[in-house]
Amino acid sequence: MNATVYTRKDFQTDQEVRWCPGCGDYAILAAVQSVFPELGIPKEKFVVVSGIGCSSRFPYYMNTYGFHSIHGRAPAVATGIKLANPELEVWVATGDGDGLSIGGNHTIHMLRRNVGLKVLLFNNRIYGLTKGQYSPTSEVGKKAKSTPYGSVDRPFHPLSVALGAEAGFVARGVDVMQPHLKGVLRRAAAHRGSAFLEILQNCNIFNDGAWEAIVEKEVRDDRLIALEHGQPLVFGKNRDKGIRLNGLALEVVSLGNGVTEADLLVHDEKNPNPAYAFLLSRMETEPGFPTPIGVLRAVDDAPRYEDLVANQIAQVQAKKGAGDLAGLLHEGDVWEVK
Amino acid sequence: MATTIEAPYRRKETLESAVIRFAGDSGDGMQITGSQFTNTSALFGNDLATFPDFPAEIRAPAGTLPGVSGFQVHFGASDVHTPGDAVDALIAMNPAALKVNLGDLKPNGLLIVNTDNFKEQDLKKAKLEKSPLEDHSLDAYRLFPVELTRLTRAALKDLGLDAKSMDRCKNFFALGMCYWLYNRSMEPTYRWLDDKFKGKPVLAEANKLAMKAGYAYCEATEQFQTSYEIPPAKLSPGTYRNISGNTALAIGFIAAAQRSGLRLFQGSYPITPASDVLHELSAYKQFGVTTFQAEDEIAAVCAAIGAAYAGQLAITTTSGPGMALKMEAIGLAVMTELPLVICDIQRGGPSTGLPTKTEQADLFQALFGRNSEAPLPVLAASTPGDCFWIAFEAARLAVKHMVPVIVLTDGYLANGAEPWRVPTVDELPKIDVSFRTDPADFLPYERDPKTLARPWAIPGTPGLEHRIGGIEKQERTGNVNYEPANHERMVKTRAEKVARIADEIPDVVPAGDPDGDVLLVGWGSTYGSITAALRALRARGRRVGHVHLRHLNPLPKNLGEVLRRYRRVVVPEMNLGQLLMVLRAKYLVDAIGLNKVQGKPFRQDEIEQKVEEVLG
Prior knowledge:
The structure holds 2 protein chains of 2 kinds. Chain A has 11 helices and 14 strands. By secondary structure, chain A is of the alpha/beta class. Chain A has 2 domains: about 10-230 and about 265-305, 3-Layer(aba) Sandwich (Rossmann fold), CATH 3.40.50; about 235-265, no CATH class. In chain A, the strands form 3 sheets. An 8-stranded mixed beta sheet of chain A has the order 2-1-3-4-8-7-13-9, with helices on both faces. Chain A has a 3-stranded antiparallel beta sheet with strand order 10-11-12. A two-stranded antiparallel sheet of chain A has the order 5-6. The model of chain A has no long low-confidence stretch (mean pLDDT about 95). Chain B is an alpha/beta fold. Helix content of chain B is about 35%, strand content about 20%. In chain B, the strands form 5 sheets. Chain B has a 7-stranded mixed beta sheet, sandwiched between helices. Chain B has a 6-stranded mixed beta sheet with strand order 3-4-2-5-6-7, with helices on both faces. In chain B, helix 9 (about 245-260) packs across helix 10 and helix 9 (about 245-260) runs parallel beside helix 14. The longest helix of chain B has 20 residues, at about 200-220. Chain B is globular and about 85 Å long. Strand 14 (about 335) of chain A pairs antiparallel with strand 9 of chain B, so a sheet runs across the interface.
């Protein structure tokens, strides 16, 4: 193998990073820059596309091809790039406002089509770049610049949205959990179809502690559940709690008193029925349930959009032969004037 | 002497040109009937122009006034520039069609009416108190009442079709009548029917029978004493086809892709009257065309921008409301200096406006619709066939100058048709494209000293990894930069880049008088009406010239000088004076507007009258 061997440095640019000191985005950038060199993909094949927002500055700091587009439209720009050249590795960096509010339409349609893009949705539950308005993932009652009396909007749950939009790969990482984050980034990179990765991220200026109730070291074992394919859904500092299926709902059970791991749900990221992953994505909405991190769903059997488009062109060309310009110009009834 | 085979009272009259209009309910197949007559006349060798006019509703309630659909064709033995101000022959399939269209029929004009649709109920739907067939209101015309429905059914009685299917053929009975009246062959329509109903030969047969019955009816009945001949036009030598603006636009882009060696990418979202361009291109996959029907107008243009970034010839096609949605993204293409062609097939507005009617009121939107200083080249097609050349030119400018280009056509050009001289492949200039590949000293915003174009450096090229985006760029490096002086320089550079395109725009040469009393300045689909008016005015000894602008930004370099050669400048536009304002602002010329916003093209006489009025 004579491919260039890259290091993290190869993916760093000479541009000064301009996120606020302490922003969770630094950790995400570091994780991506350390995973990209591992992938064995020539650097010139990477394109990082973004919309608008703090997260969308991401391409400027990645020494790859990059396109900082307009608010919400990164999935559409990225779709065009991928259709034009399916060989490229196209990553989308977006945020909760960019990807779920102004660009929500593009996000769902990109997933529906199964374009082979990797989407990193940085979720800090706030509009940071515009200095602190509530976002579509902000909790009800959120007091922010535009909601001095508290937000009355019901929030989106990004993983539920992605699953509803037919996503084949749905996962979640956390900015402050580097090894785990790198793991899910690797998994996203390996997925051929649309890969949707929500990254819980802190905004220490406008929404400090956005996720501290679940990701702080002292509480995370009880408030998060790290999903692993083939393993029972166990969580808790003492690994004494689990998730059991009861009818069409999940329930939290304590292990012991006759309840064993054998009674628990065994995580199956390849479950063909998206209802299973959807149940997992709803746990965070219920009091007492842990928030899942890791890969909820990884079903990669659907053809990629860009391949279908290219195949259709190839099939027509095989059937009709490559287009002939003179023939095209003279198509239909023609007549001569002498 | 009663043995002659040809009835002795029959005579053939030769005409220079004729205008006929088929009018009926939107379910009556008037557009197909008109297109067939047009195609046959084109193949016969007439010059022609068409005006399809149909309602926005797919099927307004049958028989009502809003449901009337019409197709007008003007065909002649010499140059035909407009669909015709007034109609020589009107075919009215029901009372509503008669009521809506009668005003355009010339006195003593030929009027064929389907009397089977004049029952009390039909009259009521058309809001008519009594039948115009009985109240002498049609006395000024040569009225031919025909039981079109009954006669069609009679002709098809042996095919075993139900009444509804038989009635759907009555437009072909009317077409057959017109073929007899104008001495046209039915062969081209036979061929079309065989192709159209490949899987349902009985329907091809039914329509053929109906058409033959209509032809035979004219032959047999004594109603028609005269038939007409319009000899072929003396067009310049070459191969011709009949072409609509949207078809011409579509194949113009394929031609540009072929001549540049680029793959064509179209991002689009369905919208009237632009959807046909998407339909056309999606059928040409053998040319390697990628058509992306996006989730909305914004995604359509953004995907095209992505494809342009990745090295394809990218276009997006829409109409006015879609343009409005795309504008932020077009600004992004201005900022990232990527080649992109944006086609606005204009329609009546604002907002939803008149979706199926024509207008040219998006010039300001094209020129000024983006936030901040975001100039870009704007081109406009003058005739249906010119849409081909404008598409080609827009693509050429976009890739040569690394700039988004807006193409303006309109509903009238899009759906209208004319005979078009087919160019040979060699007549189409090669479009030179070179992607940057050399990493040595590569800077994404280093410019060509002549055109100021930046390099096209596409993802996948080793060593050219770089970032672009909507934030202001530092000169040469393309890095994010907020310095005041840099911003001003970049704003001016982007403007200068577009302005320099004027260096390769040909000077305008006025048609008609090279100087004189009045210069008519037009753009877009008014070309035909202005040309016809100019001819009539000059025949009357008026000293009038005509400049038709295909480049609306930048404007041809000699335009200011040409404007000053005439005493007055008149600008006919289907808007309230948009080019007028540009000309007045840019050249300080006291130009006069002739403005019409009725969803219909100018009539020739409207332009003539305005010039006469200005001449005093």
